[in-house]
Amino acid sequence: MTWFRSAVFNLYFYAWTALSALVLSPALVMPRNLGMLAARFWVGGVNLGLRLICGITVEVKGRERLANGPVLIAAKHQSAWDTIALLSICGMPAVVLKRELTWIPLYGWYILVMRMIPIDRSAGAKALKDMVRRAKAAAAGGRSVLIFPQGTRVAVGTKAPYQPGVAALYAQLGLPCVPVALNSGLVWPRRAFRRPPGRITVEFLPPIPPGLRRDPFMTSLEAQVEAASDALAAVAKAGPPA
Question: Domain limits at 65?
Answer without folding.
Answer: 56-238
